[in-house]
Amino acid sequence: MKQRNVLVGFRLSDAQVQQIESVHPGVRVHLVAEEIGALLGRGARGVPGLGEATDEAHIRAESRLTPLLEKAEVFFGIRVLPDLVARSPHLRWVQLVAHGIDQIRGDIMDGGVIVTTGRGNYASVIAEHVLLLMLMLMRQVPLLMAQQGERRWQLIYPGEMHGKVVGLVGLGSIGMAVARAAQGFGMQIMAVKRTAFTGEGFPDIDQVMQPESLNTLLGSSDFVVLGVPLTAETRGLIGREELRAMKPSAYLINVARGGVMDDSALVEALREGWIAGAGLDVFEEEPLPARSPLWTMPNAIITPHMAGLSDRFVERGAGLFCDNLGRYIRGEPLLNVLDLQRGY
């Protein structure tokens, strides 16, 4: 029986390793999270400008990982080595845990192997995070927490979600999950979709528009939720002009990618009251620098790029991978194959 060597670039429990190996008797899992971390931390051997293997941990990582790469057929992980394909002559498929691939660099983007992503696997968790940010902003939770810290009892009259309009910029798996969650609060849903067609039906959406109607959506929404991938088309999508198009009472939620939003324009908008506030999980520069004014703005809520994380993150990732691994071994089409031209 052919042995199928699967390298996993993050930590799994023994039960999760067994779950993967039980997909087919020939599957063998090799955990290489520490080695991948060591090499990416210092730079992979042979990649110009990324340093040499000079410290002991780096040398150990290389010595263990090199023979595993030489026989690997599948790689499953969060981050990949920039020369993964070149170092893995038998590699046929890379499964990425996450959806966004804008931070992935290297030869897997050259088309030599199949690449699949975690698209849609964490949409419900991200939708929960979006609703959390919306509720915190609408119910003025930052102000309430400040009053609690001061032991000050003072009534406020916050807004309510019912009847408010949510404008979704992007209508993929995240946008649809947000729409379903927001409907539970009696909210109206509008969306801009890149491939929207006249007459196309979306039962959870009140109105779907073409991208050229973005400013119409921005001016009509009480909450604008960014949920698009970062591509050449979406980089810098929301800047000064778009923020000016929003209502002064509206809130911006970004769970997409930092590059979709012009952070300096957002700082200006929050300071000058172009919009009421923002819930931000992603930023142009991450980690968000301590010097950023966003940290101390009373109308901004900051979370550290964690909208898709939960105590079931690895469980969800392993489940999707096992499904795809079975498809791969049976020769069936894989889920979430990455379109290298579109970038998602």
Low-confidence stretches: 42-53
Q: Give helix % range.
A: 25-40%
Rg of Cα set: 22 Å
Mean pLDDT: 92
Q: Could you name the CATH topology of the largest domain? A: Rossmann fold
The main sheet comes to: 7 strands, parallel
Number of domains: 2
CATH class bucket of the largest domain: Alpha Beta
Give, in spatial order, the strands making up the sheet with the most strands: 8-7-6-9-10-11-12
Beta-strand percent range: 5-15%
List keywords for this structure.
single chain, 344 residues, alpha/beta, Rossmann fold, 7-stranded parallel beta sheet, 5-stranded parallel beta sheet, 11 helices, 12 strands, 33% helix, elongated
Please tell me about this protein's structure:
This protein has helices at about 15-20, 35-40, 55-70, 85, 125-140, 140-150, 175-185, 215-220, 240-245, 265-270, 315-330; strands at about 5-10, 25-30, 75, 95, 115, 165-170, 190, 205-210, 225, 250-255, 275-280, 300. With about 350 residues, it is α/β, with parallel strands linked by helices. The protein folds into two domains: about 5-120 and about 310-330, 3-Layer(aba) Sandwich (Rossmann fold); about 125-300, Rossmann fold. Helix 10 (about 265-270) links the parallel strand 10 (about 250-255) and strand 11. Helix 2 crosses helix 3 (about 55-70) and helix 5 (about 125-140) crosses helix 7. The longest helix has 18 residues, at about 315-330. The model is unreliable at about 40-55 (pLDDT under 50).
